[in-house]
Design goal:
The protein is of the alpha/beta class and 284 residues long. The protein has two domains: 207 residues; 64 residues, no CATH class. It has nine helices and six strands; from the N terminus they run ααβββαββαβααααα. Strands 1-2-3-4-6-5 form a six-stranded mixed beta sheet, sandwiched between helices. α3 links the parallel β3 and β4. α2 packs antiparallel against α6 and α7 runs antiparallel to α8. It is extended and about 70 Å long.
């Protein structure tokens, strides 16, 4: 029987930064990136520090993959709307933070930005999107490749291996049917539950470590306050963005009806096209 588990954003803030719990994040990253990931350290960046508002839902990690390549991974968990610019800024910032004075640009570490999204983001019907950088010729449509010397310098096979990669996980688009072990992690991210049949890396430790019932009174109170804040943020989103969008659509329809009426189009046709009542059209 599945148990109530601590939400992933709270776990990132309070629990998963402990070395004893690295196995949970290592499991998630290994399933997502399809390679065995081992965490070297949690980086001492600005985003990893606690602040008085406790709003940072981001953790920066230095890891090594199964090919012994060192990668910096940034995990963000957010409900914010200005997100395309935010992930660009964050990945750029982490690159600049990790390059020491005097180092050549060839020493820049690979960055992977993983973004767990809990709001409607763009238009698409998938729940995991992967973005990389490619340079395509304008005339012959061929992709620019690294030279043999560049491959040795960067220890990379293609340009996309050097530039940041982005994963967007749109949790709300997931249909709760876990077809593989990566889906089992997405199920947990969406539902804060782990089914007994799940076998994905890291989930067994997550089930033990993130059990709400194991919280002491002070931890539970802090967690419950955090959950209330999330509900409050969701209400603000509903009242400002969603309702504002609906009002904008309604204003647009009324404007169309007004223009059609001024063009002497029959009111019954206007009503059929716009879905407005005769009374609403006559008021325009």
């Amino acid at each position: 029987m599945s148990r109530e588990l601590i939400s992933f954003d709270w776990a990132i803030k309070k629990i998963l930064r402990s070395k004893a719990n690295f196995g949970i994040l290592e499991g998630f990253l290994s399933e997502l990136l399809f390679t065995d990931i081992s965490i070297i350290e949690i980086l001492e960046s600005e985003s990893n520090q606690e602040n008085k508002d406790n709003k940072y839902n981001r953790v920066d990690i230095k890891v090594v993959d199964s090919n012994q390549q060192t990668i910096i991974i940034e995990i963000q968990y957010s409900r914010e709307l200005d997100y395309l610019q935010r992930i660009l800024f964050a990945s750029s910032k982490i690159i600049s933070e990790q390059l020491d004075k005097g180092q050549s640009y060839s020493e820049i570490s690979k960055v992977i930005s993983i973004n767990i999204l809990y709001f409607d983001f763009g238009e698409g019907d998938d729940y995991i999107y992967h973005g990389t950088t490619h340079f395509i010729g304008l005339h012959n449509n061929h992709e620019l490749k690294l030279s043999a010397e560049q491959k040795r310098l960067y220890t990379a096979e293609k340009i996309a291996d050097i530039y940041p990669e982005y994963y967007l996980i749109e949790v709300r688009n997931f249909n709760n049917v876990a077809k593989d072990t990566l889906d089992e992690w997405i199920y947990f991210l969406k539902n804060e539950k782990i089914e007994d049949s799940f076998t994905a890396k890291g989930l067994e430790q997550a089930q033990e470590t993130l059990d709400v019932l194991k919280m002491n009174k002070q931890e539970r109170q802090a967690y419950e306050f955090h959950q209330k804040q999330l509900h409050h943020e969701a209400s603000l989103y509903q009242s400002t963005y969603v309702l504002g969008k609906m009002e904008g659509i309604e204003e647009g329809i009324l404007g169309v009806a007004k223009n059609m009426k001024q063009a002497k189009i029959d009111i019954r046709i206007i009503a059929k096209v716009t879905g407005l009542s005769i009374e609403q059209i006559n008021q325009q």
